[in-house]
Each structure stands twice: as C-alpha cells, then as structure tokens.
Amino acid sequence: MMPITLTVNGEKVTRHVEPRRHLIDFLRLDLGLTGSHAGCEHGVCGACTLRVNGKIMRGCLILAASLDGAEVETIEGLSESGEVADLQAAFVARNAAQCGFCTPGMVMTAAELLAEGACPTRGEIREYLSGNYCRCTGYQAIVDAVEDALRARGTTP
Amino acid sequence: MNEITPASIGLSREDLPNSYIGRSVPRPNVPKLVQGRATYTDDVTLPRMLQAAFLRSPHAHAKISAIDTASAKAVPGVIRVFTGHDLAKFCDPWVATLDHLKGMKSAPQYPLPLHRVTWQGEPIVAVVAESRAAAEDGVAALQVEFEALPAQTDMETALAPGAVVIHPELGDNLVFTRTAEAGDVAAAFAAAHKIVEARFVTGRHTGVTLEPRSIIADYNPADETLTVHHSTQAPHMMQGVFAKQLRMKEGDVRVICKDVGGSFGIKVHVYPDEVAIAAMARIMGRPVKYVADRFESFVSDIHARDHRIKGRLAVDAEGRVLAFDIDDLTGIGPYSVYPRTSAIEGNQVVNLCGGPYDFKNYRCTTTVVLQNKTPTCQYRAVGHPIATAVTEGLMDLAAEALGMDPVEIRRHNLIRDDAYPYTSPPGMRFEGLSHHASLDKLLDMVPLERIRADQTEARERGIYRGIGFASFIELTNPSPFMYGIGGARISAQDGCTVRMDPDGSIVASSGVTEQGQGTEAILAQIVAHGVGVPFNRVKIITGDTQTTPYGGGTWACRGTGIGGEAALQSAIALKQQILEVASAMLQAAPEALDLAMGEITDKASGKPRMTLFELGRIVYFRGDALPKELQRELVQTRHFITKEYPFAFTNGIQASWVEVDPATGMVKLLEHWCIEDCGRVVNPLLVNEQVRGGIVQGIGGALYEHCVYDAEGNLLTTTLADYLVPMSAEMPEIHVGHVETPTRESLLGAKGAGEAGTAGAPAAIMNAINDALRPFKVCVHEQPFTPERILRALGTIA
Q1: Which of B79, B83, B259, B438 is most enclosed, with most CB atoms within 10 A?
Q2: Partners of B217 in the beta sheet?
Q3: pLDDT band at A157; cut points 50, 70, 90
Q4: By the 8 A CB rule, do B535 and B20 touch?
C-alpha cells in the first residue's frame, strides 16, 4: 500500500492505495465519487474522463499512486462549483443525454473546449468530442448543446 | 376514433397549459445525468458485499477435464469458489424454445457448464472475494484442464455431413427453420420481365452498452428474500426467472433497476453469469456484485445479425414487384438464449422481407443453426435491418435493371396509403401505414435535384458520391403473439398506478422501464395531461418489482405505446375520482367541474374553485368532514394490452448521401434523412433523438461494427480499439421528420419509435454506396462495408 495525499474537488484527501489502483477506481471505490464511470478500462471510450492538474485525462489509464500532490477534479466538483452550469443546462435543453453513462465524461471534455475560448465549427466540435463514445444519442444533440453553450458564452458566432 | 380532443380526455381546451402530449418537454431526469448524480448498479454498495469474477473459456469448444480450485482459494481476499456442479445443486438449467416456433430445439443451459464449454468466453468458474481485484487474482490462480474439441464455427457447414454436432443429444445443429410461402413464386419468376438476385451478408455485431452488464444479488436467509439490483430492461421478467431457476416464489424476489447505462436489447436476456451471481448470493446469504469488464462484454453480451441471405426479386416490364424469393441462414452460437430465444431474429426476416410493398408472391425461408461462437439474440430492431437491406438492395438492383429511378420504383410499389387494413404475404397485418406520405415528405426535405447535379459534377472531378433510399416497416407494441403464446413468461401487458398525495403531488408507478429513452418524461407528460396538473408536479417510479404494477418493461418499442396508454387511462381515472371528491366538497356536479393546472375549476367559466392542496388536506387529514359513503381513495390503476392487432406496425423511409473514395475504399457520410411514422408523437424532441440514435447504431453495423472470429472460433475483436463503434466526427447531420398515423388500439395512439432508425439506416447506406460506385459497375452487399470490401469490389485488391 502506498500513501498519497492529493486534492480532489478542492478537498485534501490522504489514503493508502494499492499500486495497481487506477484513478477511476480510487475515486469510485475509495472516495465514493461515482459520477465518473468505467466504460472500457482501456482508455478508449472516455466515460472516465477527469481533470488532473487542469487537463482532462482518462481515469482508467492513471494509477492513483502516481498522483501524490496532484489536483483532481470530477463531474461532482465541476457541478458544485457551477463552472459548467450553462453547459449542463444546454445538455438538458437539447436532450443531449439518454442513458447518461457517457455524459459526465462528455461534459468534462466539452468543458475543456469551452475553456479554450476558441470559436469552433460543428465539425471541429465533433472532432474534439471524438474521444468520448456515446452509444445512445448519435451525437447530434451533444454537438447542438455544446454549440449552444459556446454561443451563450460568446465564443461562437 | 381516438383523436385526442379536449372532450375525449375531459380537458376544457386543447391549449390548456397542462396539455403536454405533443410537446418537447425536457426530461426531468437529465439534470442528475449531467451532474454525475445518477445511480447505476455499480454505484450501489451494500453491507458485507462481495465481488465476483469469472474464469472464461479460452476455447470455442472443449471438454472440462479437471478443475482445481485450491490455489484460487489460497489467494488473499478470496472467500469462495463455485463450479458448475456447485451451482447446479441450487439452480435449475433452462431451455430456450418457444412453442409457436414449430420444431424449435435447444439444449439445457446451466449458469456454469458441467462438462463442456461451447464458446470462447463462456463463464466456467466463479471466484467470490472481498474485492474485484482479489476475485480476479483468484481467477488467475485457478487450475483448469481442458481437452480441446473441434469447433463448428461456419454456419454454412453446420448442417453438412461430418459437422461437429454441438449438442449430440439434439441430433444435429438445426435449431429452427420456417418457410413462409404465398402465391405462386415459380410462376411469377417464370413470367418476370426482369429477375435480379444478390447474396447479402449482415455482419455479426453487438450492442456495446457503455455501462456493462451489472448485477448485485442479495439473499437474506432470515426472511428468505432475494433482492437483485440489476441493469435490466425487464425487472418483472427477471423476477420470474430468478424465482423459477432458484426454486423460489416470485413474491420473495425483488428486482430493483435504477439507472441503466444503455440497453438496446442487450439487457433483456438471461445471462448465465448473472444467474450464477443470484445463485451464489442465495448460497452465501450475502450480497454479491458482478460487473462485466469490456472484454467480458464482447465475449458474453449477446451478439446479433449473423446472417447470410440469398435473395431474388422478379419484376414486370412496368416495374411492378411480382415476387420475392429469399433464403436466410443464421448462426446463433451454441445455445438459444432464454427466454426470448435466438430464433426470433430469423423469424422476423421471414415476416418482414418485402414489407413496404404491395405484391402477392412470396417465399422466404430462415434456417437457424448452432455454432461455437457467442450466443446471439435480440438486439435493437431485431431482424429489421436484415430484411430491409435485402428488400431495398433488391429494389435498387431491379430499378437499375429496368432503367428506373430508385424513387419511382418505390413509389410504384409501396402499399397505397388508403389500402389499410392490409395483410402482407407472410401474414403481417398492418392497421394503417403512410409509405406514400412519408416518401413525399422525405422528398420535401431531401434536395434531390441539387444532390443529383452535385453528383454528376463531382464525378467529373473524380469524386464519387451517391444517394440511397430505404423504405421500411417496424414492428412495435407487441401483443402476447410475440412471446406469450410460445409459453414464455414475458408480459405484453403493462400497468400504471397513479396516486395523489396530500399536497397535490401526483406519483405514478409503471411497469415499463427507463434506459435513457425518456420513458419517465413521456409518462410524466401523459400523466400530467391526463390528470390535469403541471408537468413538474408528477413523479414517476419505474424499475422496482415491489412498487410498480406487473409489466413487461421496455423493449420492442412498447414503452410509450403500451406503458403510456396504461398511464393515460389511470391518469384519466384518477382525475375522475378527484372530481367526484371535489363535487362532494363543492356541492357541484362532477360534470360541472374540471381539473386544470392542479386546480379544481368551474368547467363553464374556468374560475378556480379549489386547489389540490386543499382537496388533499381534507381527504387525508379531515376525512370526517366528507360524506360517509364517499369513495375517496385518490389512487387508480389501469393496465393496457393491445387486442386487435398482434403488433402495431410503423413505417418510414430514410435517405443517405455518401462519398466513397475509390482509392482508399473509405465511405464518408455526408448527410442523412429519416421520415418516421410512429403514430402519436408524445415528445418530438425525444422521438427525434431516438431516431437519430437508432440511425447511428444502424450506421455502426453498416460500416464499422463487426465481431470477427478466426476459424477456430476465437473472437478477435475484444477491445474498443479493435471493435469500432461510431464516433462523433464520422457521423453526419441527421434530419428527422414525422408523419403521424395514430393506432386506433389506444386513446393515446402511440406506436414505437426506438428501432426505426436502426431498421433502415444500413440499407440506405448500402444503396448510397452502390449509387456512388455505379460508374465502376460494381456493388457491395456484405456488411460492414469496410474499405477492404469496397476495394475488393473495385478489383483494387484481390
């Protein structure tokens, strides 16, 4: 077991973890943060997308033991801070979620696109979201929601 | 008549604020999804809960010679190890056949096999431990000896002399065969002006629910009850299955199904590993959790669509369809899957080929055979994409042979919109369809002239684009004719209980389930509409066998059509009951009162008379103030089942506009259209999203998704890097339109909408690719239409 101390959603946590414990399991099993999901556990589907030290990453490809001193943000943290409230509202308005399993990861990725302050086309939004699989919606409503949120923030014409 | 008029459901005006049917109301359960506050099965943790992992067969076919569990039991954290023999003492095997599928046979299946493994990935031994990691360590330590046996993997040779008979007690590998025949096919072909034929292949693929199959079973020996938290589409069916296999009473089994991370038919079947979990919980008297990992999903979730179809079509000189002659062959793995069976997909092909068209002569045979691969069963749009690809592929070949426009040959042959009721050659009864109205509406949306001009101009630049069309029918709102008459305990009926709580809140519990389609939003709209309250005053309960009326769940496009009608009828009954009580309080005839936006009003003037809050206060807390004989229970239950037609067929048409690169064989999707007639549209936003999502799953099967096996029966596509699913960048913009032909079977008039997209998309894409390839005089009929297959058709590669 390895001791780690890190910041998760602004709170300092200290735990002892097995070296093989992935970040997604650490969050879900050790901290009870079940908003991030394990979809494939090999870094393809994007359901476990999280923010580590300000950048989105795959929670299933990072070992918790490597995160001593890191700052981790999850969908729960972004929801509580209100950072993505507009994006989440756009997802609701556009019905950009069906089963919802991919949705937290999708919101994390879209939040990074919004934070870039760029002015992407629909095609560029689609490219940006390509690392996040959605099996239900066919993606169009998600692109609509992200486009709406970008427009509301004044970053898209 | 089932027109929803203000009078028909007792509303004062159709434009009342609480007239919710037909409105794009956002789903009330999406905020929790976007905030990570949903509760999927793996999010549930119970006291003393253990975790299971399975050793899965590395062979497609092998004898289990010996199982040594000692070293697994020695692994830290491992609590217990179960073999097939251990579980067979407590759990009965099942056989998946249906009586109405004449001659169907399959072998008994145990939760874990006793002597032999019959597909690579079959669960063999379960290890239960304090954590999943420890359970997997235990699996790694198991010592199992196999004697490899030859595997029967090719469906074409399954019935040939010398084939490996997978279950010797069955005599051969034939599970089921059926031929539907109408008219005089031989004479029609003899008299034909043109005959076209092709060999179609639909690739074996699977559902890839992003949330893998998940289950927690918890047996309490003190009160002898089994509680199962399950990611499923059919909680009541599973309640019955667990009770029967574990020799319990249904009343002692409770299935709870909170949020489900995608289903698409994958989560409506009985999986041996899930029954094993229930059996182990029963034996151990404590909760056991199992969540499939992605590798396990690929080898153990049901696969589908593994068909080879030879089709012929005869047309006359005017382009009239004279006859279809179709031979379908499908391999379903080593077992028919319980309880729906794996013969239904082939049976659907027989029922649905030629479906949109008016013709007399028909012959279609399906042959369903065993093979040593993952079992197949019902996946979204069961059989429809296969039948539609065959039908629409042949229609395009006929159009080309005749020199006819693909739109014109369809217009010429589609069943007339005034021809209903209509019975198709294989015996499907259509209450009312709108093929011509749908085609007209499609042509309003698709800029066909611009597309054809662009196509011609692009070809001159060496760019090959094509447009393809696919008319389709879809079977929805199934009656007991689907499964019940075959002996399966699968409910075609669904119920809804609607009650009013003291403060005027309305709570409705329903037997249909939510897996993301928006079932709960639709039910809330219908109940709000029926009772006469604001949408946000309605709470919906689904997914708990202990608190919802018995029902079938959500599959085969029945949530809105069946569950929605039960909700509407119970809501109207509750409204009537509320008005009876109000009339006693207000000294007014019930007919003179109305309920709108949560208030009792004077019907004539619309003047508010009493709030539901006040009515609730008196009924629940001052019942003494009401007349003694007054019925005052503010709760009503109604059930609904279709009675006149075995199925409510829907119809529609899709168009796909693609670009094929002849140098690389890559297909680029440019744009996609779908007109769909699901009867009454309760929520256009949600229906459109169902159609779009369905189309994208159809696109997956047409272009990317394929469970590839080697000759020995090893699945080669077991990661999401090998098995490709559609991603956002490759998907086109999808335009959806509606024609509404309500079913007269219900007041609501709704039919299903969830599978139409998947039914038609592969055929539309196939026809579009072949339209693009027309200058090369080649075509492709084998899905998925990979670059390799397109290059092979072009002769670029051998």
Answers
A1: B438
A2: B228, B288
A3: low
A4: yes
Q: Where are the beta strands (DSSP E) in chain A?
A: 2-8, 11-17, 49-52, 55-58, 71-73
Coil vs helix vs strand at B534:
coil
Question: Which of B24, B27, B30 would you mutate first to test chain A, the one with the most A CBs within 10 A?
Answer: B30
pTM: 0.97
Identify the domain boundary among B640, B668, B691. B640
Over range A15-19, report the average pLDDT: 97
Domains of chain A, residue spans? 2-79, 82-152
pLDDT tens digits for range B26-66: 999 999 999 999 999 999 999 999 999 999 999 999 999 99
One domain for residues B502 and B625:
yes
CB contact under 8 A, A138 and B729: no
Contact map slice: A 32-91 vs B, CB within 8 A: 33-42, 44-45, 47, 74-76, 79, 88, 91
Supply the pLDDT for residue A154: 86
Distance CA A52, CA B4 (A): 54
Judged on CB neighbours under 10 Å (0-12, 13-18, 19+), B66 is: exposed
The rounded distance, in Å, linking the Cα atoms of B167 and B160 is: 15
Residue B13: CB atoms within 10 A of its CB come to: 11
Structure tokens, B738: 């509606």
What Cα–Cα distance (Å) separates residue B126 from each residue in B80, B122, B235, B300? 8, 11, 24, 15
CB contact under 8 A, B34 and A134: no
Predicted local confidence at residue B11, as pLDDT: 45
Pick from A39, A130, A136: which is nearest to B729 by CB? A130
Residue A50, token pair as written in the block: 């999280």
Query: Out of B209, B516, B731, whose CB is closest to A100?
Result: B516
pLDDT by residue (tens digit) across B327-378? Answer: 999 999 999 999 999 999 999 999 999 999 999 999 999 999 999 999 999 9
**What domain count does chain B have?**
2
Per the structure, the complete domain to which residue B661 belongs is given by 444-466+648-798
Chain B residue closest in CA terms to A80: B35
Asked if the bond preceding B784 is cis, omega within 30° of 0, the reply is yes
Flag if A139 and B728 touch (Cβ within 8 Å): yes
